[in-house]
Amino acid sequence: MRTVGVVVNPIAGMGGRVGLKGTDGNVEAARERGAEPRAPERARDALAALRERAPDTEVLAYGGEMGAEEARAAGFDPEVVGEPESEETTAADTTDAVRAFADRGVDLILFVGGDGTATDVATALDEVDVRKTTKSSSAAHQNASRSEDAETPVLGVPAGVKVYSSVFAVRPEAAGRVAATFEDTEAREVNDIDEEAYRGGEVRTRLRGVVEVPVAEDLQSAKQVHAGSTDALAEAVAEEVQSGVTYVLGPGGTLGDVADALGVDGSPLGVDVYRDGELVVRDGSEAEILGALGDENVIFVSPIGGQGFVFGRGNHQISPAVIERSEVRVVASPRKLDETGVLRVDTGDEAVDESLRGWTKVRTGRFEERMMKVV
């Protein structure tokens, strides 16, 4: 019988739809803008998939909304290994949970959050590893201990605004399936970005750790930053905008080039709304974008390099409600598509995701298009 330790960062992802590009240090600001938690629901989806595939799984969880509540909602009777120190959960709670799971010898740690949570998990495992090594009194004993106490594998359920690391499943349900069925693990990187720089329009990534992760097809790749020239593509898109149509421009360098071609000062990593020669909304939240939509709306998005996500990573402001009122057009350089393989969606609304799946045209140049499958 497999044992799985579950820890949830309940505030992960709250800053996305309200335009904060991250929740670290901005929980109160997110709440003031009307943000609602999304991590608990995604945790329940992952655990429901785990229970469907492996109902006899023994689940250990951190207390309250950090895992125990979600596990019970999915039909498990978890063993609670600890409780948050206060109502406002912290990174210390996450690291305490991970240490407890590692000490109990779980087969997998299933965590729910974003890159910040992944960093906390990796940090805690490093501390456990150092502690075990320090206890070894000789080289021979150390080698034996390392063999017996191999690093606990982890798997991320994507719930944060930034999910760039390669330790996450592509969707919550996929995480549950992988947790139930994996047979082998491999080393993968945990990367995080500087949120203050990110809010200012600059991506600064740092390697924060290397962890063991289940080997599976349904894991996302690390984000790739550089993906080829898009100048001709951007100019072609700008030339084809129509009067009276409202255009929603997603984040990223490709759409930043489009904004430059339109002659407007767009937000490099935010979502902008353009109509009739001017920005109606710059770096908007979901509510601001919805308020700016007109009778005819077009969303321009570009997939994340290496991962292929069109919706659900870094652009939560373009919510299911925005998508349902708009035509979606995908643009990308040929090099980015070559490195991506397939496109992915994870809006949090299964009906909207299903409407986006299938084959779609991706604009790759002034005249060129490529058919890509959305999964």
TrEMBL record:
Gene3D superfamilies per record: Probable inorganic polyphosphate/atp-NAD kinase, domain 1 (3.40.50.10330)
Compositional bias ranges of the Polar residues kind: 135-145
Keyword Translocase: no
Keywords: Kinase, Transferase
Region of interest: Disordered: 21-43, 131-151
Repeat is among the record's keywords: no
Domain of life: Archaea
Segments of skewed composition (Basic and acidic residues): 29-43
Protein name: ATP-NAD kinase family protein
Native source organism of the sequence: Halobacterium sp. NMX12-1
Higher taxonomy: Archaea, Methanobacteriati, Methanobacteriota, Stenosarchaea group, Halobacteria
